[in-house]
Amino acid sequence: MMMNTLMPRRSVLATLSTLPWLGSAWAQGTMAHDMSAMSHAVPGGAVAATVLAPVEAIAAGAPLAVLKKLVNTSPQPGLFRATLRAAPVSLAVLQDGTPTEFWAYNNSLPGPLIEVMEGDTVEIEFINALSQPSTIHWHGLPVPPEQDGNPQDAVPAGGRRVYRFKLPLNCAGTYWYHPHPHGFTAEQVYRGLAGLFIVRTKNDPLKSIPERHLVCSDLKLGADGRIAANDMNDEMNGREGQFALVNAQRQPVLTFDAGGRERWRIWNANSARYLRLSLPGARFTLVGTDGGLLGKPVTGLTELQMTAAERIEVIVEAPAGGGVVGLVTEPVERGKMGEVSPEHPITLLNVDFSAVKPERLAALPKLPGSLRRIQPLGAAKAKKRVVFSEEMSMAGGVHSMKFLVNGQNFDMQRVDFTSRIHEVELWEIVNQSDMDHPFHIHGTQFQVLERELDGQVTPEPLLAWRDMVNTRSGEIVRVKLVQRHKGLRMFHCHILEHENAGMMGQVQVI
């Protein structure tokens, strides 16, 4: 059976399952989350199987690693100067010592943490020692477009460039950096290229609380130690590896501060995996989102859900019973395609509360009732409408997918919208596809106003600064934003395989 037109994805699923080159693997769901093997098409229409390493192949239980910091080589106050080199590096992560080639910044997994203050100037020399073009995108940071690692500004293999930008006041928050060369982003990230960025403020009301950094990522390895290429399921649903890691470790142990309270900055640095975090018995208080602290703490939370690329800050207080408790991510229903295998809770790390004495918990001081002042953005002067959709094709007997913005595949030569600098805009992100898509825009933070699903409008309960928001199938999410720099900005789905497949657009700020 052949189809030569594009169609919504569910219309093609039955046809996919009948194709001889997919065989029974698709029908039985073994291409999805069966972590013992994956399948991919090879020349001639055959199906080759790559055996994946079992989850136990990476040792668990080591102490949680402290993130490596990027050293500032500048003696000048207010100037952070350093070098980031993207290059292959061989590391033995499997217990049997089999080496794996990663791509990493400065040979570090995850990439080194950059810590600066509001108002600092940042100057990073980027050396691209890869065989592909690359960039560094400063995800969420308010930097000029020409310094933001857009795909138009790719650094060629073997090349180098200097990124230089000054951070404004009131931008303290939890950010990260990663490549953004169109067509190569997904691979470069899943091979290891991602690093962390924290902007601090002198007036942080929580600075006295011990701080932890938790970088959640995943890894898909073959039994031979090689990083597995994406299979068709990865390209459709977004890549999720069999190893769920924190600070590049499998199920490390976090020894909780004896004082009974910690501040956690959590990065979801996965290509596609959503997180739904719980820590039985412990108390969560949400204090920050992508763009920094909230106006006031949100207490009494038992779960924390994070879309891909999202960051949060939480205060964690030890449970009264102490002991060792697992930080677990539960499955998130996001509309995956195909006959995927059942998903199960994953323990990301174990938290050892044994050093915390009950009398310390009783003596914990109250958290500040006010963290920062966040003003709602004013009346919108313009409106933008972004529609996410998916289409699939069997034209010529070849299976292909398109992930679209406003019915179009990304074109680097096309400007989709024009915006005016310093003008408040209302953006409607409309999800007309069958699966969730996390929306991201470059160069600014936005405020979520409301969500609409099945005609029911729900106001957003939090006034917060974000650069990531999930959109569910059939949902409309309305946000307000302002761009503070002239130039070209990207907006896209942050499931990296979908971005690579065309779910991205461009806005020219004039």
UniProtKB/TrEMBL annotation:
CDD domains: CuRO_2_McoC_like, CuRO_3_McoC_like. The lineage of its organism: Bacteria, Pseudomonadati, Pseudomonadota, Betaproteobacteria, Burkholderiales. Residues 95-203, 237-319, 397-509 form the Plastocyanin-like domain. It comes from the Bacteria. This is Multicopper oxidase mco. Residues 1-27 form the signal peptide. It is found in: Periplasm. InterPro entries: Cu-oxidase-like_N (IPR011707), Cu-oxidase_2nd (IPR001117), Cu-oxidase_C (IPR011706), Cu-oxidase_fam (IPR045087), Cu_oxidase_Cu_BS (IPR002355), Cupredoxin (IPR008972). It holds the Pfam family Cu-oxidase_3. PANTHER family: MULTI-COPPER OXIDASE, MULTICOPPER OXIDASE LPR1. SUPFAM superfamilies: Cupredoxins (SSF49503). The keyword Metal-binding applies. It comes from Rhodoferax lithotrophicus. Keywords: Metal-binding, Oxidoreductase, Signal.
